[in-house]
Amino acid sequence: MGKKAMLKSLTVIFLILGFCYVSVASELRKNGERKTYIVHMAKSEMPASFDDHTTWYHASLTSVSDSAEMLYTYNNVLHGFSTRLTAEEAQSLENQPGILSVLPELKYELHTTRTPEFLGLDKSADLFPESDSLSEVIIGILDTGIWPESKSFDDTGLGPVPSSWKGQCEVGTNFTTSNCNRKLIGARFFSRGYEATLGPIDESKESKSPRDDDGHGTHTSTTAGGSVVTGASLFGYASGTARGMATRARIAAYKVCWIGGCFSSDILAAMDKAIYDNVNVLSMSLGGGMSDYYRDSVAIGAFAAMEKGILVSCSAGNAGPSSYSLSNVAPWITTVGAGTLDRDFPAFVSLGNGLNYSGVSLYRGELLPSKMLPFVYAGNASNVTNGNLCMMGTLISEKVSGKIVLCDRGVNARVQKGAVVKAAGGVGMVLANTAANGEELVADAHLLPATTVGQKSGDAIKSYLFSDSNPTATILFEGTKVGIEPSPVVAAFSSRGPNSITPEILKPDVIAPGVNIIAGWSGSVGPTGLAIDTRRVGFNIISGTSMSCPHVSGLAALLKAAHPDWSPAAIRSALMTTANIACKNGEMIQDVATGKPSTPFDHGAGHVDPVSALNPGLVYDLNISDYVNFLCALNYTTSQINSVARKNFTCDSSKQYSVTDLNYPSFAIPLQAALTGGNSGGTTVVKHTRTLTNVGLPATYKVTVHSQTESVKISVVPDTLSFTQQNEKKSYTVTFTAGSMPANTNSFARIEWSDGKHINETLVVVFDVVL
Ligand SMILES: *[C@@H]1O[C@H](CO)[C@@H](O)[C@H](O)[C@H]1NC(C)=O
Ligand SMILES: *[C@@H]1O[C@H](CO)[C@@H](O)[C@H](O)[C@H]1NC(C)=O
Ligand SMILES: *[C@@H]1O[C@H](CO)[C@@H](O)[C@H](O)[C@H]1NC(C)=O
Ligand SMILES: *[C@@H]1O[C@H](CO)[C@@H](O)[C@H](O)[C@H]1NC(C)=O
Ligand SMILES: *[C@@H]1O[C@H](CO)[C@@H](O)[C@H](O)[C@H]1NC(C)=O
Ligand SMILES: *[C@@H]1O[C@H](CO)[C@@H](O)[C@H](O)[C@H]1NC(C)=O
Ligand SMILES: *[C@@H]1O[C@H](CO)[C@@H](O)[C@H](O)[C@H]1NC(C)=O
Ligand SMILES: *[C@@H]1O[C@H](CO)[C@@H](O)[C@H](O)[C@H]1NC(C)=O
């Protein structure tokens, strides 16, 4: 770098620093402004002079601020309240007696049906519980609300609302009590935290009521528990019968997500009510940045729910295929990744050189003229450096008018790219994956004739575009195709392990269908969700771990109905130990991001198999004390433990706690950590104990270890477990002996308990070698 250039860049740096300095200063000034805090109180420390806890909460608050408003008080998820405080007030409140923690609010985001057949639910209806017991199960959904007019909420044939139900149908903009029925038994909305931060809800854009103006909440709710609707389709695509996983379960909607996001004070208030209302399953297709469990509202609320016997199913996130990209990893949450179905929506690109490339699309409307059309790469039709992405206002009309335009995937919404091409005068679009998405094909209901192609096809099409002086193309739509093999494969977007908070707990737990899923939709928006999309549809096809999570929520409802006495941990164990790691064609499930077999960091225990999960034989159960011991093993302080567990728990200082003692249905062993506790002679020996509970008939199980590696030896003692009665518990110990392993390698194994007849236990084992 020349001296002059250096000086110039120094100046620039100086200016940037100066700017930062100014903004830091204004940040400091802003500290006088209020933010939302969630205040956890140690209820057991309430002074005797108070006769109820709310007066005590108010007194604590007024001791630091006489003007702060109380947004919510919480009774079930935690003892405490949320309020607006300055940073100074928050700090002085934290030092008051009886305060466990004062945590700043976090913002969460949404993790944006042929499924029943794919999961084998159609052929085995008789295996599932009588509709009477299923209709006692209530699934609570925290999301963008509900479109009650959806046909999926038809309550024909359902008996009275379960007597356990204590919830409400809350009245608000365009929503009355008559919008609830025997299927949609409750609907509430939570906006105080949102409005305290972002100002009053703009009712010209979204309803201040449980009404869903986004579509996401209606989609997730109807996936979990929608009634059977015949003749469902999106513009004729995926036509057939749409139904949720648990068609006779009841739905309760808790609207916590608004245009600007989902705020933790509202999420906690909704979970607080859902626990009070007596839901049996909570489905949450949202997530936020990763933080320790005592700071994470979803983890805190889920702990209270778990203690009440409510299974909490959450999406793993859409930040894949990078490692360590998971959300919602607390061991008392069921964390769900996404796989594909055996259904596709093919739409071919045919090039002027005679070659064809297959893609996918949900476009319906006027087709392209039946001749080859001029074809251009967006990067060659724009003056900006990222012109290839087709961002708003970046295409030069003269260069795209009347042409098909190739845009690269990434940054802005896929459907928006189509809208940008259309606005600039383009007549069609080819959307090409880049390395981030590989060969994963997500179909969209584009506003113009368009198809999405994988990275390999995209690269081939680009080399044609760059080498031909007069490139041409056309797009041919072929409707819906089923029976696609291999399926399932792990979606590239599905977030991956290892678990960044507790690497010893393998996450995700399972995968379920999350690509191109059809379910109910809101009448307020079109299928693309774009403001310019004036189309209205009863069903929409969208993708994300947001879609896989409610599949597992619905399956958990089925299992709860079949086994009302099972704990959330037992239900999750049944789903995990019976999950498939092979496709229907017998080959190992693949990762679409690599084209190679997927690993437990991608698929957890595997793809859910609900029919097998009904009768797992054995389960790994967990109760509240097990989870508190786990928190002790994390070396959390008493305040941190009680922020999660609410009661006055203390760890026994004479006891040795270990994270790996948690009776989880999988093992994850970070070898580096293990090595520090092992001997220094090159081999590491780690022993773990697990306890199985018999939930089947009396039987004798024998163990088989399937290992892919020579460098780690696995032995199990005893190798036979005999159960003579129901609910009997038996333990076994696994010894892992690791020799020297190459750095940064992972190896995987399975421990299988089988009774030799029909029950087959598979346990995932992972070694995460970080040396
Ligand atoms: C919490 O438990 C500890 C140990 O059992 C006890 O010493 C302490 O007094 C308890 N605190 C309250 C407020 O009950
Ligand atoms: C109210 O809901 C109906 C559907 O029931 C819808 O047609 C109408 O546009 C909605 N009105 C507002 C203001 O959102
Ligand atoms: C490409 O697809 C079109 C339409 O399906 C077909 O007519 C043509 O033969 C195909 N060409 C090749 C090379 O596969
Ligand atoms: C079009 O863009 C590609 C990639 O950016 C570039 O290699 C090529 O030279 C461009 N073609 C024209 C005609 O500008
Ligand atoms: C793009 O660049 C060309 C040549 O540099 C210029 O003539 C044209 O006006 C620019 N167009 C836009 C939309 O900026
Ligand atoms: C939880 O389970 C453990 C081990 O099975 C048992 O020792 C303990 O008593 C149980 N605790 C509760 C509160 O049920
Ligand atoms: C907790 O502290 C113990 C003793 O210092 C240590 O051995 C252990 O690794 C710590 N556990 C975690 C999860 O940090
Ligand atoms: C258990 O599952 C494995 C595949 O995971 C299969 O090879 C084996 O035959 C099964 N055993 C029994 C007893 O069903």
How would you describe this structure in keywords?
Alpha-Beta Plaits; globular; binds 2-acetamido-2-deoxy-beta-D-glucopyranose; 40 strands; 771 residues; alpha/beta; disordered N terminus; Rossmann fold; 7-stranded mixed sheet; 24% helix; Glucose Oxidase, domain 1; single chain
Can you offer a commentary on this structure?
The chain is an alpha/beta fold. The protein has four domains: 35-104, 2-Layer Sandwich (Alpha-Beta Plaits), CATH 3.30.70; 116-339 and 488-614, Peptidase S8/S53 domain (Rossmann fold, 3-Layer(aba) Sandwich), CATH 3.40.50; 346-479, Glucose Oxidase, domain 1 (3-Layer(bba) Sandwich); 663-768, Immunoglobulin-like (Sandwich), CATH 2.60.40. It has 19 helices and 40 strands. The chain has a seven-stranded parallel beta sheet, with helices on both faces. A seven-stranded mixed beta sheet has the order 19-18-24-20-21-22-23, with helices on both faces. Strands 33-40-39-35-37 form a five-stranded mixed beta sheet. One 2-acetamido-2-deoxy-beta-D-glucopyranose binds at residues 752, 754, 756, 760, 762. One 2-acetamido-2-deoxy-beta-D-glucopyranose binds next to loops. Residues 200-225 are annotated as: Disordered. Residues 1-25 form the signal peptide. Residues 36-111 form the Inhibitor I9 domain.
